[in-house]
Every structure is written in C-alpha cells, then in structure tokens.
C-alpha cells in the first residue's frame, strides 16, 4: 500500500519536473515556434498579432510563469497548430489510445504466460531456445516495420483485418494488428523474466520436497512455482510499459490511428509546444498508471505484500 | 492455483469481435459516402486561420466557397462572385456577387457577408494569418446587396485573383469555429482529431444538389499504408501524396484509375545570394554559373523522380502566360563548370555544401549531385534536414545550394510577386531563403501589374525570367511536380488541378460522382 | 518502484574474478555454452567486417542512378538501393554507425550510471533519495520520447541518438550499481577498510567497484543490441542519423516504403540488425549463466 501511495504522491512532482524540462528544451531550441508556425511570408504586423495571441511576444520568464500557473490549474494551454485547447484535443483521442495500450498489454500477457512456462518446463531444450529466440526477435523488430508487415500480410493479402484507422468503438478489428505489434514488442523481457523466475523457484526447498513426494513436474511448475514467478513477471511488465508507451507513437502513426502518440508526432512536426508537452505528460501518466496497476496486481497475487 | 478463466475470456472476446466485424462491414457498404485519404490532418475548421493548404482544401471543397475558384488550367474563374471589373487606373475594383445563394443555415448571401468576413480577418484581435494577404487592400465597402468595391494601393491588373480559393465566406452572424457555416456543397458534420473529418450534403447548394450524402476525409500519415488502403477499398480516393513507390502497382490495378497533370509546383535549388552579398565568394556569379553546369537535371530527374515530375527549365510552367520558351535547361558541362568554380574561388578539394529540406526525392537528387561533384574532385557534402530543423540551418547561410520547393500561383505576376520581389525579402529576424534582391526585377514586376495588354505582359514576364535565371542565376530549376489523384474505378469525372497542393479542383466534391 | 535487477549471489567467494580469468569457472561455463559462443563469434565477425569492410568496399554514399534497385546478384552482392548505392557498402558503413551508437551509449551509461549508482548507494541519505527519484522519472521515460525531446533541442544527429539512448540506459545501470553497493556496504571487508581511514574515492574504486561491476557489465552486454535498435525508431520519426549517412536503423526506416517492390532494401539491414540484437542477447544470457548472476526482483525502492 505504501508503495502505491508514494507513487501517487510523487506523480505531480514528477509531472511538473518533466514539464519544466520540456519547456526549457523547446524554448531553447534554435527554431522559434513562431517561425515554424506562421506561414513564410506573413507581414510583420500580422506576425506580431499572432504572437500576441499565442503569448509568444512576452519574455520567457513570464511565458514560463503563465505556463506553470496554467498547469497547476489543469490548463495545458492552446495548441499552436490546432488553435484548440490541448486538453480538449487530448481528451478526444484518449479513448483510442487507452484501448490500444490496454489491448497491447493483453496481447503481451497472452504471449508471456504460455511461452514463459513452456521455456522453463523445457529448460535448455530446443523449445526453450526457440522461444527465447522468438521473444528477442519480437523485441528487435522495429514496431513500424512489424506494423507494415502485418498490414501487408494480414490486411492486404489475406483481407483478415482492416488496414488502418479506427472503427466505431469498441473497434476490435482495427485493434488487432497494432495490439500485436505492441504486445510482441513488450512480451520479450517479461517472458524471459518469467522463465528465469520459474527456474529460480524450482530450486527452492519446498519444491524439492514436493518433487520428493512424487508430484509430477507439470503440476509443480504450474501450481507451486507459478505463483511466485508470476509476481516477477508482472513486475517486469511495469518496467516495460515505458517502452511500450514509446512504441505507441510509431504504431499510431503507421496504422493511422488517432491517439496521443499521433498527436505528439504532429506536435513535433510543427513545434507545437503546448501540444508536445501536453501529450508527453499524459503519456507519462499512462506509464505511472500501469505501474500502479502492477502494484495492485502484486497485492492480489502475493499475500506477503498484502501483509507488509 | 486457480484457473485463469482464460477460456471464458477468450470465448467472450471472440463473440464480441465477430459481431463487431459484421457491424464494420455494414458501415463500409454505404454507397453514398465518399472517403478520401489525405497525408495531413485538418488543422482547424476556423476560416480565419486555414491558410494552410490541407485545411483549405478540406474546408474549401465542402463547407465553404470563395469568391473565385480555379479551373483545370489553374485560371481564376467565378464562384460566389460572377465578375470583377477594374477602373481605368486599375486601382478600384468592383466585384459583382452571385444572387440567390443561401448559407447552410438558410440565410441569403449578400455583400454584407463579404465585408463582415474581411472585417473579421483584418481585426487584430482575431490574429488571422490571412490578414497579410490583404496588405495591398486600402479599403472595401458594400455597394447595395450584390456589389463590393475595393480600393488597392497600387495599380493591379490581377487583383481579383487574390480571392481565388481563399478568403472563404462564413456566415458571421452565427460564427462558431467549432461549427462553421458557409455556402458550400456540404455541411460540417463531425471531426475526430488525427483521424477524420466528416461532412454531410447541403441540399440547398446553389450549384445544385451535391452528389454524395457524406464526404469523409481520412488522415493517413504513411503514404505506403494509404496506397494499400486504396487498393483494398478502405478509401475511395487518394487526394494528396500518392506514393510514387506504389505508383506502378496502383496503375496496374484494374480497379483503380490514376490521374495526373503536370503541376506548377517547382522543385528547385536556390543559390546563396546572401553569402554572395556578404562576400563569401571570390566571384559569386561565376560560382553560381559553375554549379549550374553541374546541374544535370536531364539525367537525374527522370532516373530518380520517375513519373513524379517533369524536368523544368524555368520558374513558370510551360502552359502559363509569360513563359519564355527561349530559356533552356542548363547544359551539363563539368569542364566549363569546374573552370567557372575555380574562377569563383572554389577549387578541387574545396567543400561545396548542399542543404536539403526533407521532401521525397530532394535528398536523393542532392545525393546524386554530390556524387557527381565528388567524382570531379570536390568535397561535396549533403545535409538533409527535417523541416523543423531546417530554418535554423538555412539562416546560417553557410550552404551553397539549397534544395527547396515552391508551390506555384495561378499567374506569372502572382508567382513573381510572391517569390522574387525584393520588397518582400525577409527582415533579418525572419531569415528566409528568398534573399534575391534586384531593383530591375522589382520595376519590371510593378510594370506587369499595370499591364492589361497580353503581349506586353508576356514580354515583361520573359524579361523577369531572363534576369533571374540567366543574368543573375539565382535559382536552378529542377522539375515540375506532377499532380496525382488515384481513385477507385467507380469514382467518375475526376478532374485534376495543376495547383499541386490541392490536386482535385476545389469544387470537385460537386462534380465527382460514383458510377451506378 | 520495482524492476528486474541482476545481483551476483555469493560475492564473497569470488571477490577477484577478474584475475586468472582463463582458469575460472565462469570462463569454462561460458565456453561450453554453444549458443553463446556462436553468437559471440558472429558478433566478432560483424565487428571485424564493419571495421575493416568499408576500406575495401565502394563509397557507400555514391549514387549511380542508372543502377537503381538492382536485386542481389553477381554485380551487387546485396543489391542496390533506390539511388543505385551499393547495399553491401551501406550495410558495412551503417554497421559502423549502429555499433558505434551501441558501444558509445553503453560506455557513457556505464560511466555515469555506475558513478551515480555507487555514490548514491554508498552515501545514502538525501543524495540517494534524490538520485533514486531522478532514476525513477527517467525510467518511466520511453527512449523514443527522450530521443524526440533531445532532437527538439539539438536536431537529429549521431549525438542526439547517443545522448538519448545513454540517458535512457543510465538509470537502469545506476539502479543495479546502487543495489549492489547497498548489498556489500555492510560487509566486514568494506567496514574494515573504512575503519582503516582509507579515502572514500579509493574505497569506491578499489573495493566496491570490482565487487559490483560484473552484473552491471553482464546486463549492459545483453542490452547493446537494443540500443542499436532504438536508433531505427528514432530515424522513423526523423530524429535519427540523418541521410545520406547510413546506419542500420535509418536504412530500415528509409527502405520501408520499398518493402513491397524491392524487399532487399529494408529486409537486409533489418535482418542484420535483428541477428546482431539476438546475438548480444544470447551472449548476455550466456554471461549471466556463467557468472551466476541471477535476475531477480527487488521489492520496494530497492532499499
């Protein structure tokens, strides 16, 4: 419980810290937002009007103060490009990203559990090597590349799934391919950790005792060692979620899916500072949320944590 | 350990998926909806700020009309205005508006609406980007319900073209940027940021009942994915950025039609006039001429660009009034080039820096030139920059050639005025690539503005081209970008505009239709 | 916050593993691991090829537009790309850049990460708290986001890629070093040298570092492939190595549109990169088994 509380208390501090870094980076970069934002041959008066409207004419410390005050009140500012409040834009696409990330996690779990157990059961056998090879391959194929391959094979040649975009929610069919990409990319380390943790558990005394009593190996693996090992695997999920959130940017762009990652991509293209910082902050909240979820799962799976 | 209940979960999931798929299939079967794939997202529905091409295309082909629109040759033709007449001194223009036009909310369109829209654009509080385009306007007023009278700063024989496919007319009595109301063929329906913008038919449209019940613009950032969507029927038409890599397979697909016309977007290399002025070269003109002799457009353009463009010899497209047939592509002559470069102070082994704004083919073309220069002993360097990183690098003025594109205008004068008139040269803070300054060209363009005689106009225009391209060698033309539209066979009457950023004619959504 | 950490068990038994390496058990265990040995040989082969190869191959950036998109064959062993550049030359030149990214980022993150980890673990207190928090924040930052932010500030370049991947790796290394330091600080021999009045810097360098470095090195080795890989994602969003210079990552990103029409353009660099990542991972696994470094989970904040 303490861990979860700590995380929640820490969240605003982390977010504000990140916001400050973002502000510094974007405003110290050689290209001014106005330069990219405003069409190339706008007259000076019009440029001044636009800058005034966006608050870019004020000195940096004042812009910064406004930004922080707004942030504290939950106001992420107006997007330079879309000329809309960033919070509105983010809320619009939020469900799409939540669905994508959640289904990515589900796919990762579906891959991790059986493969982890199988690899541990047949330690150092050919199946183990194959599984380890597969998960590393999964991690080492860039997500945009795997995305195109899936689109080509499943969508274009086999007509099994739609090629891109987002259907009317809940849009399961549009989610399949992007979720597989995210899942395969994430399942790598958790499968390995699950295998390693299972093998560790198998060396424990109580397992040896069970084995001595003649309980078969499969039952030992699934029922006795499994629970402990699962705790580790779930934990690695939390750590890996950060990487997954990063892939969301690529996956949403390739699959033409509206979402936070795609908004961030757009923001970057146009140096849209409020949009960049807003979407990065929300993406970070996702990371923290997944970590917290992992903590809660811990409580459920592991009775020792509950008592602590 | 308890069972995961995985089987149950899976069963439920499969059932849910199945029903969803059927629902999706049904949604796609809608025959009255045209879906158009675009490579960029709608920026804003707000007419005050949609100066950018994609937003202009989306809004201008649906919700809004402008006073003038474009025909297939890129000429300005009447839309909400039926005619525009100048006074004898070309400083007062009277626009006559179309009668019987209704807004989507039922209000009748009159001269008051034009004035109200222009007022809103000029209001500093609104910070409209369009305001700078009205720089030449001194005043305007409504004269009755269907006449607007403009006064302009200097005589301008082409003033009315300023209102072509821009300065959209919104009902200012009910202005809400989230829900625009215009006189166009389709009403605003809904929008999902980063995904799609949808419109529905406006039955009272003045040109007649529009052909589709719904028009949907979908944002597909990756051109390869967009091409696949078209082949699979996920979109009916690709409107911008047809992937050249996919062009062959699109053309050979029996279910698709691929349309193209030579566009008037010029891809070119700017030579560094700023560095020349600051004494960065021993003999700047010789350097520019020398580089021109290495500019092997006739070899590289067909090989690299393929069907995407046609070799260009000058800054006006061949079909535009004012084009000079006497200006030819620079001949490829490395020996002459090397001699001139040496005269200009660049010897073998010296660096030559090529800077590229990232765009399909530009980096590739620059690499080809680099290879050629290297083969002749120069230390040629290519730097391909992402658009967001480029302005800062350009502003250092340490490059020798900058690859850049220029989207064309509908008339020669507009093109020169936009790109080559030195009074529009940027302020020091603004740091732009267009640093060419010539009093002679300025005078010629000003004269063009006062000329209604076509022959005289053409002569002047040719003189300007000669000055820029031959006398000063300020720019090296590369190729004209072809404009592509790819569509399902069932989409009929597709007409393609040479104005490259909006390949379909702006009013296409009223003429394109599905075959039965 | 928790994460997977590697810790050597029974460190006291093998305090000086770096000596008499050849006769050591870990060496024997590693060389008897076929998969790891094959991977290691492959890595050395690749390393040799990318270091030596570019001297013998044609200029990887020279375009010959008359020979565009030629499939692999007798003239061009690995074919040519969309500009008629020799793919073999580009794969070799690109490998230099990609492996440089992996090696540099590993070196930088090891230096900074081990320093911060050891100091914060040894000192404890406020400094430790602060550093741990910063690590936590950085750990929750996807590498791609970091790259994007660094790019926004400095533009896309080799430096951007190395900086972003290093920053992303520092906290991983740092936490491991910190956990190890905390683990051995109470041991008698450390307490002993503290009592002798030996300067802290010397204690850290001579006594703490050698005892915690093995798991850190093992983990870093296994991770090197993923660093080279991170560059591919950065290239796709325009934050990677800038063309025309080659790296495996940007060759994949640039070749992606040709997948359907000229498969070798993206697939060849993609396969090489995947095989290298795989090899690093297997070598990492082999080292972990050999040195008996156990992947285990540290509960709470590692305290």
Describe this structure in words.
The complex is a heterotrimer of chains A (308), B (516) and C (303). Chain A has 13 helices and no strands. Chain A has helices at 2-28, 33-37, 44-54, 60-72, 86-121, 126-140, 143-157, 172-202, 205-212, 217-254, 260-269, 273-301, 303-307. In chain A, helix 1 runs antiparallel to helix 4 (60-72). With 516 residues, chain B is of the alpha+beta class. Chain B is 29% helix and 22% strand. In chain B, strands 1, 8, 9, 10, 11, 12, 13, 14, 15, 16 and 17 form an eleven-stranded mixed sheet that branches. In chain B, strands 4-5-7-6 form a four-stranded antiparallel sheet, covered by helices on one side. A two-stranded antiparallel ribbon of chain B has the order 2-3. In chain B, a hairpin with a 4-residue loop joins strand 6 (137-142) and strand 7. In chain B, helix 8 (297-305) crosses helix 10 (362-375). Chain C has 303 residues and is mainly alpha-helical. In chain C, strands 1-2 form a two-stranded antiparallel ribbon. The longest helix of chain C has 37 residues, at 87-123. Chains A and C meet through helix 1, helix 6, helix 7, helix 8 and helix 10 of A and helix 4, helix 5, helix 8, helix 9 and helix 10 of C.
């Amino acid at each position: 419980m303490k861990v979860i509380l700590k995380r929640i208390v820490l969240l605003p501090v982390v977010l504000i810290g990140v916001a400050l870094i973002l502000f510094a980076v974007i405003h110290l970069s050689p290209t001014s937002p106005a330069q990219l934002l405003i069409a190339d041959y706008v007259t000076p008066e019009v440029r001044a009007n636009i800058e005034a409207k966006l608050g870019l004419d004020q000195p940096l410390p004042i812009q910064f103060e406004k930004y922080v005050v707004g942030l504290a009140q939950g106001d992420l500012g107006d997007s330079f490009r879309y000329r809309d409040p960033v919070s509105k834009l983010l809320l619009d696409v939020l469900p799409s990203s939540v669905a994508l990330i959640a289904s990515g996690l589900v796919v990762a779990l579906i891959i991790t559990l059986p493969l982890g157990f199988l690899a541990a059961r047949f330690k150092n056998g050919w199946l183990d090597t194959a599984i380890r090879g597969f998960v590393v391959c999964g991690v080492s194929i860039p997500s945009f590349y795997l995305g195109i391959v899936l689109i080509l094979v499943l969508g274009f040649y086999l007509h099994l799934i739609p090629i891109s975009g987002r259907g009317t929610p809940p849009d399961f069919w549009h989610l399949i391919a992007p979720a597989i990409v995210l899942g395969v990319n994430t399942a790598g380390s958790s499968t390995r950790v699950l295998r390693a943790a299972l093998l560790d558990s198998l060396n424990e005394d109580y397992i040896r005792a069970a084995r001595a009593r003649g309980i078969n190996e499969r039952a030992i693996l699934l029922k006795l060692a499994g629970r402990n090992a699962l705790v580790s695997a779930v934990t690695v999920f939390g750590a890996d979620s950060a990487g997954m959130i990063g892939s969301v940017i690529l996956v949403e762009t390739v699959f033409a899916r509206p979402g936070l990652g795609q908004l961030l991509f757009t923001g970057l293209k146009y140096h849209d500072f409020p949009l960049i910082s807003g979407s990065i902050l929300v993406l970070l909240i996702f990371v923290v949320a997944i970590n917290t979820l992992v903590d809660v799962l811990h409580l459920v799976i592991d009775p020792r944590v509950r008592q602590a | 350990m308890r069972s995961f209940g995985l089987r149950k979960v899976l069963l439920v999931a499969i059932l849910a998926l199945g029903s969803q798929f059927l629902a999706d299939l049904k949604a796609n079967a809608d025959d009255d909806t045209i879906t158009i794939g675009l490579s960029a997202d709608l920026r804003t529905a707000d007419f005050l700020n949609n100066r950018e091409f994609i937003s202009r295309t989306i809004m201008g082909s649906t919700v809004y009309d402008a006073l003038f629109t474009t025909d297939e040759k890129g000429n300005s033709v009447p839309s909400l205005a039926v005619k525009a007449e100048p006074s004898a001194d070309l400083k007062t223009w009277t626009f006559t508006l179309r009668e019987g036009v209704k807004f989507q909310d039922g209000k009748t369109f009159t001269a008051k609406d034009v004035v109200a829209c222009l007022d809103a654009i000029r209001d500093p509080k609104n910070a409209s980007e369009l305001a700078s385009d009205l720089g030449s306007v001194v005043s305007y007023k409504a004269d009755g319900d269907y006449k607007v009278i403009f006064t302009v700063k200097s005589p301008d024989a082409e003033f009315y073209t300023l209102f072509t496919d821009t300065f959209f007319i919104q009902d200012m009595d009910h202005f809400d940027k989230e829900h625009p109301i215009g006189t166009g063929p389709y009403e605003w329906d809904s929008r999902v940021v980063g995904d799609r913008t949808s419109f529905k038919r406006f039955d009272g449209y003045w040109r007649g009942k529009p052909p589709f019940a719904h028009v949907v613009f979908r944002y597909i950032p990756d051109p390869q994915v967009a091409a696949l969507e078209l082949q699979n029927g996920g979109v009916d038409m690709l409107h911008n950025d047809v992937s050249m890599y996919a062009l062959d397979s699109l053309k050979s697909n029996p279910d698709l039609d691929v349309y193209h016309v030579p566009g008037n977007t010029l891809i070119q290399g700017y030579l560094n006039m700023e560095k020349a002025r600051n004494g960065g070269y021993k003999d700047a003109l010789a350097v520019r001429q020398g580089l021109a002799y290495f500019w092997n457009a006739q070899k590289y353009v067909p090989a690299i660009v393929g069907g995407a463009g046609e070799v260009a010899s000058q800054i006006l497209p061949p079909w535009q009034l004012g084009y000079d047939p006497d200006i030819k592509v620079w001949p490829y002559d490395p020996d002459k080039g090397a001699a001139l470069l040496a005269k200009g102070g660049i010897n073998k082994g010296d660096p030559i820096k090529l800077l590229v704004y990232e765009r399909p083919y530009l980096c590739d073309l620059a690499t080809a030139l680099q290879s050629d220069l290297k083969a002749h002993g120069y230390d040629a360097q290519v730097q391909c920059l992402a658009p967001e990183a480029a302005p800062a690098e350009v502003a250092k003025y340490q490059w020798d050639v900058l690859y850049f594109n220029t989207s064309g205008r509908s008339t020669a004068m507009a093109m020169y005025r936009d790109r080559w008139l030195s009074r529009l040269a940027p302020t020091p803070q603004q740091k732009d690539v267009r640093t060419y300054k010539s009093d002679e060209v300025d005078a010629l363009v000003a004269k063009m503005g006062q000329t209604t005689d076509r022959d005289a106009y053409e002569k002047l225009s040719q003189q300007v081209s000669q000055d820029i391209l031959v006398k000063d060698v300020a720019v090296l033309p590369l190729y004209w970008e072809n404009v592509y539209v790819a569509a399902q066979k069932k989409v009929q009457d597709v007409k393609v505009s040479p104005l490259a950023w909006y390949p379909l004619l702006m009013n296409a959504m009223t003429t394109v239709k599905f075959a039965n | 916050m928790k994460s997977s950490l590697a810790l050597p068990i029974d460190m006291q038994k093998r305090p000086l593993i770096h000596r008499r390496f050849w006769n050591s058990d870990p060496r024997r265990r590693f060389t008897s691991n076929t998969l790891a040995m094959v991977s290691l040989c492959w890595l050395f082969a690749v390393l040799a090829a990318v270091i030596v190869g570019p001297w013998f191959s044609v200029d990887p950036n020279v375009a010959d537009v008359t020979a565009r998109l030629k499939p692999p064959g007798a003239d061009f062993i690995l074919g040519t790309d969309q500009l008629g550049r020799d793919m073999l030359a580009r794969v070799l030149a690109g490998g230099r850049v990609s492996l440089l990214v992996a090696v540099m980022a590993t070196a930088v993150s090891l230096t900074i990460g081990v320093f911060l980890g050891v100091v914060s673990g040894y000192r404890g207190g406020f400094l430790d708290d602060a550093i741990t928090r910063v690590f936590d924040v950085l750990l929750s930052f996807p590498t791609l986001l970091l790259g994007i932010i660094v790019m926004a500030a400095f533009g896309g370049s080799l430096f951007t890629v190395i900086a972003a991947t290093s920053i992303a790796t520092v906290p991983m290394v740092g936490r491991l070093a910190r956990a190890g330091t905390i683990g051995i600080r109470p041991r008698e021999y450390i307490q002993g040298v503290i009592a002798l009045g030996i300067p802290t810097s010397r204690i850290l360098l001579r006594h703490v570092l050698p005892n915690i470095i093995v798991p850190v090195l093992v983990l870093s080795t296994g991770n090197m492939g993923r660093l080279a890989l991170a560059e591919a994602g950065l290239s796709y969003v325009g934050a990677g190595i800038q063309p025309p210079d080659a790296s495996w990552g940007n060759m994949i990103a640039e070749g992606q549109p040709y997948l359907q029409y000229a498969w070798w353009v993206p697939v060849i660099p993609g396969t090489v990169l995947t095989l290298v990542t795989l090899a690093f991972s297997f070598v990492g696994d082999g080292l972990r088994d050999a040195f008996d470094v156990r992947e285990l989970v540290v509960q709470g904040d590692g305290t």
